[in-house]
Amino acid sequence: MHVIHRKGWEIPEREATPEQLFLNRRSLLKAGAALGAGTIAPSLSSRVMAAEDPAAGLYPAKASDVFKGAFTPEDVGSRYNNFYEFGMSKKVYVTAEALKPRPWTLKIDGLVEKPIEMSADELIKRMPLEERVYRHRCVEAWSMTLPWTGFPLKKLVDYARPLSGAKYVRFETFLDPKMASGQRSFFAWPYVEGLTMAEATNDLALMVTGAYGKPLANVFGAPIRLHTPWKYGFKSIKSITKISFVAERPKTFWEESGPGEYGFWANVNPQVPHPRWSQASEEVIGTGERKPTQLFNGYGEFVADLYKGLEGEKLYI
Ligand code: MTE
Q1: What is the spatial distance between Cα 176 and Cα 184, in angstroms, rounded to a whole number?
Q2: Ligand 1 centroid to residue 81 C-alpha, Å
């Protein structure tokens, strides 16, 4: 993600291209077991994190029957990220170590029967965790495939008991410029995103609590984030602290920070270019491959109906 102020991604920081090691989950689990680790070979920092994480016992969760398949290796997927709170480098995993994901309070408010305030761990324990392999298409024209663990956002909506006046769900990330050096920059902090109620209750919208068979690493937006795989990646807000049910369409971080370039809907469409580049194809991170981009990132069968009657809206920006 970037705005007019920098060149950034146009010169991608290519790490030494890893071997194209696209294993399925089962063989990774087997490999982990063979190593005596019993899970996807964890790094030292993830083992330390897991030991401190009261939700660690919930992983790996049951794999989805529908959303399964090969994914980007972990050393690639967790080393090429966007998390502007911690800077604009793609190697933000280094600075994101400053994030303190526990204790973490999540607020659910706005047009609900009763506002809720609870720890992320408490919420995660109450929700049915499932592992889903999702494609991820960034608006910067690169892509990956990630094995996320989480629960359908619809479950959280049901739990929150919104009132009939609620038309949108608004998500907000923490605001702490002392912890997150990137929040001392000019952007319209905190990071805010939004979905319509119909989008939020679509089965594909996932509240993500883990990746690669364990709790979320900081760089992925610990302890809880969103993933909407039919939309450009910037809709998938990380490290959420507040979820509000509202009547008006929320103004998002990128609409505020990059006016004229980013909109509310941001559905993937190869035929609608970004004002400054084409969206027709994407670089598959870690492989050197460039492949054609698909409408709704290939998830049209699940989501196209959401947009019937909305043809007058800028659905792909
Ligand atoms: N959420 C927050 N809070 N801050 C961010 O900078 N970047 C977005 C999205 N969510 C971002 C965020 C963008 S532009 C992308 S492409 C994805 O996170 C990147 O997710 P990943 O690092 O897990 O691949």
Answers
A1: 9
A2: 7
Question: In a mutational test of the pocket of ligand 1, which residue from 6, 75, 83 has the highest number of ligand atoms less than 8 Å from its CB?
Answer: 83
Amino acid 3: pLDDT: 54
Q: Which atom of ligand 1 is nearest to the CA of 232?
A: 16
State the 10-residue block means of pLDDT for the chain, 317 residues long.
41 29 38 31 44 83 97 98 98 98 98 98 97 98 98 98 98 98 97 98 98 98 98 98 98 95 98 98 97 98 98 96
| Residue 1: predicted pLDDT | 60
What's the pTM value of the predicted model, to 2 decimals?
Answer: 0.88
Structural domains in the chain plus CATH codes? 35-304 (3.90.420.10)
C-alpha 235 to ligand 1 mean position (Å): 8
